[in-house]
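Action item from last week, closing it out:
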Amino acid sequence: MRFPARLAVTSALLLAASCHETTGTLLTLDQNRAPDTGNAGGGPSAPPFRPAPGTTWQIQLSGTLDTSFDVKMYEVDLFALDTATGALLHNQGRVVACYVSVGTAEPYRADYLNFPASAVGNALSDYPEEHWLDVRDQTVRSLMAARLQLATISGCDAVELSNLQAHAEDSGFPLTRADELDYARWLIAECHMRGLSVGVSSSDDLVASLVADAEWGTASECLGNDDCQAWQAFTAAGKAVFVIEYGSSSDLPSWCPDAERLGYSLVIKRRALDAFRVGCTAADASP
């Protein structure tokens, strides 16, 4: 019953891209690991997963998925997750979080051509293939709702709502903080309606306003840039903050003490966000 439903949602996302080749996702399941489909797709947590500060995690958005890390939460790309992979992670006792860029249009996504040209703005400075979206646009919101529905069908327990910061960037649209906050709260409500736990990745000026609504937060390179303070609002509320820094094991002495002092769950990754992972403690180390 779950697979046909997922197929229907995926077909809707693919409709406008049917005559256009995309690169698709880079994440694949290790074919040497036989997935157990007895609990196909798993299902969203009820009530939504609320990780505490210090919760261990892994994020992998490219390469062959390595499921061997002994962590509580795995974050994978929404468009890469199938019900068998979700079931495999669930059967290992993992919480499955799905990455969704809700603020940008990525040309390799199946639903990319469904975004109206009028709602696709300037390119991101660090990722020039991606473009900011007009988060006020109703078609943009409808497409994001379809993605969240796909998340529930695919076996996601949680979603990371990424790139909630167009108002603070050169997006090409006259977006305000109020516009972004309205969009973020709409997305969170859509997630909660589907039983999904929500993590937010946003500009610092939204963090304090979203802490009561979201279950966890995600920050990138805030330790290296010495600008993690805004996320203390989550730890003060007893909620996890998952931090990504880019580097190697040689960076552990620099970043781990600060992460532990702040109560953040740090992983050191390569920029490809492949399987490579370094954690701060012996129990949280790569196998």
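Closing note: Residues 138-154 form the longest helix (17 residues).
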